[in-house]
TrEMBL record:
Gene3D superfamilies: 3.10.620.30. SMART domains: TGc (SM00460). It comes from Alteriqipengyuania abyssalis. InterPro entries: Bac_transglu_N (IPR013589), Papain-like_cys_pep_sf (IPR038765), Transglutaminase-like (IPR002931). It holds the Pfam family Bact_transglu_N. Residues 159-223 form the Transglutaminase-like domain. It comes from the Bacteria. This is Transglutaminase family protein. The lineage of its organism: Bacteria, Pseudomonadati, Pseudomonadota, Alphaproteobacteria, Sphingomonadales. SUPFAM superfamilies: Cysteine proteinases.
Length: 266
């Protein structure tokens, strides 16, 4: 399956920006079953300063905002071919050891809610991939998918307490619970081609856990299954902050407006 992505993020500022830098993680890389055929990032109101691979192996573009701008945009257009649909990424690669993905972070710190969720699974064998699917189902039963009640800084525990969340929250809860059980786990950002629409409001997120003998396996809690040919895997991290499509800093232009347009189609 070949998937085409057209993703633009446009920022408007209420005053000219004196200085700004954006870290952009919007370039997918070749991996098992995923081949990038074409991918271009264009910038209005800024310029690419450099491109590098971060400690998670993500390709990062460092974008400088032109001084005096009141509007900037970052757009990526690309074509990816997918040939695998089992959600298995395979063996561990990269700069970081597996034990790194057992550690917690402020967004994935396990508290009473996560501990109760894990206890409800009983005596699961963490060597079996079925444990990941059972955890995924338990999370969706506990935290229903509903937008508007959480934000980028919502923690796994806060989402459980609120009872609803979006894909980012589900991925954080999965990572928190999997690590509590002794499984390496990481957050994944990327794209999903939906069967009922081309235009979308935002990119997608899911989680991966590592199983001995099988390697990294993806779990899309929000949809209740593992990633298939409709998914494009872009960036990973210990949580959202390390895999966010765009983050950065600026001086000037205190109020910011953001408009996202996204199309994912076969």
């Amino acid at each position: 399956m070949r998937l085409r992505v057209d993703h633009e993020t446009r920022y408007t500022y209420d005053a000219p920006v004196a200085y700004g830098l954006q870290q952009v993680r919007m370039r997918p890389k070749d991996s098992r079953g995923q081949k990038v055929l074409d991918w271009t990032i264009t910038v209005e109101g800024g310029a690419s300063e450099l491109c590098y691979d971060d400690h998670n192996g993500n390709r990062v573009d460092l974008i400088g905002i032109e001084p005096g701008r009141t509007e900037t945009s970052i757009r990526c257009v690309g074509l990816v071919e997918n040939t695998e649909g089992d959600g298995v990424l395979g063996k561990h690669q990269g700069f970081l050891p597996l034990w790194h993905f057992k550690r917690s972070s402020p967004l994935t710190q396990a508290g009473e809610g996560v501990r109760k969720l894990v206890a409800g699974l009983g005596d699961c064998d963490i060597a079996q991939v079925s444990t990941g699917h059972a955890l995924s189902a338990a999370i969706l039963d506990t935290v229903g998918y509903e937008g508007g009640n959480t934000h980028s800084g919502t923690t796994a525990e806060e989402a459980i307490t609120g009872g609803t969340g979006v894909c980012q929250d589900h991925a954080h809860i999965f990572c928190s619970a999997a690590r509590l059980m002794g499984l390496p786990a990481r957050y994944v950002s990327g794209y999903l081609m939906m069967n009922d629409r081309v235009e979308q409001d935002a990119s997608h997120a899911w989680a991966e856990a590592y199983f001995d003998g099988l390697g990294w396996v993806g779990f899309d809690v929000s949809n209740g299954y593992s990633p298939d040919e409709r998914y494009i895997r872009v960036a990973t991290g210990i949580d959202f902050r390390e895999a966010a499509p765009i983050n950065g800093m600026r001086m000037g232009g205190s109020d910011e407006g953001v408009l996202v347009t996204l199309k994912v189609e076969q």
